[in-house]
Specification:
With 162 residues, the protein is α+β, with helices and mostly antiparallel strands. The chain is 32% helix and 35% strand. The chain has helices at residues 10-20, 26-42, 91-105, 122-130, and strands spanning 2-4, 49-55, 58-67, 74-82, 110-116, 134-144, 147-155. The radius of gyration is 15 Å and the shape is globular.
């Protein structure tokens, strides 16, 4: 498996993965695809940065991240999705570690991740905790009644002594 930049041919595969996970609503999928389109259209000028996991020409997952506007040292992980058939192989962990390295290399040493507090997302929240993130805040009923927002943060190694 290799990690690479986003390419024009990835859009359909990423749309399929987003739908196949069963986690993202149609509205969320549309937002994710808008960010992908932005990345493809604007390239390096886009606010959004992408890493795509690929094996033997097949897209297995992706991560989308970017610096948080108005901040000096912080970045957001906007999306992390892995094809259900390729999960439990460490792909999500490799994508996240690569995002952390890229964010740190760009001078961003705090990485934030937002996710739902619905029970369905318990494994997602456990994944972020296992990857060294701390729960920074929880906002009740943020997305909908009974569906809050959990905000995780990790201070990246590049921040040591900063």
């Amino acid at each position: 498996m290799r990690l690479r930049e986003l390419m024009p041919g990835d859009q359909a595969a990423l749309a399929r993965i987003l739908a196949a996970t069963g986690f993202f609503s149609p509205e969320e999928q549309a937002i994710a695809l808008e960010l992908i389109a932005d990345g493809l259209t604007l390239g390096p000028q886009s606010h959004y940065r992408f890493l795509v996991a690929e094996e033997r020409g097949q897209v297995l997952g992706y991560a989308c991240w970017g610096p948080i506007p108005g901040t000096r040292f912080s970045a957001d992980l906007y999306w992390l999705a892995v094809d259900p058939g390729a999960q439990r192989r460490g792909i999500g962990r490799k994508l996240l570690a690569a995002v952390e390295r890229a964010a740190a290399a760009s001078g961003r040493f705090r990485l934030y991740i937002e996710t739902s507090t619905r029970p369905q997302y318990a494994p997602t929240r456990a994944f972020y905790l296992a990857c060294g993130y701390q729960l920074a805040s929880e906002l009740a009923d943020y997305y909908a009644p009974g569906d809050g927002k959990a905000i995780f943060c990790k201070v990246l190694p590049a921040a040591s002594g900063t």
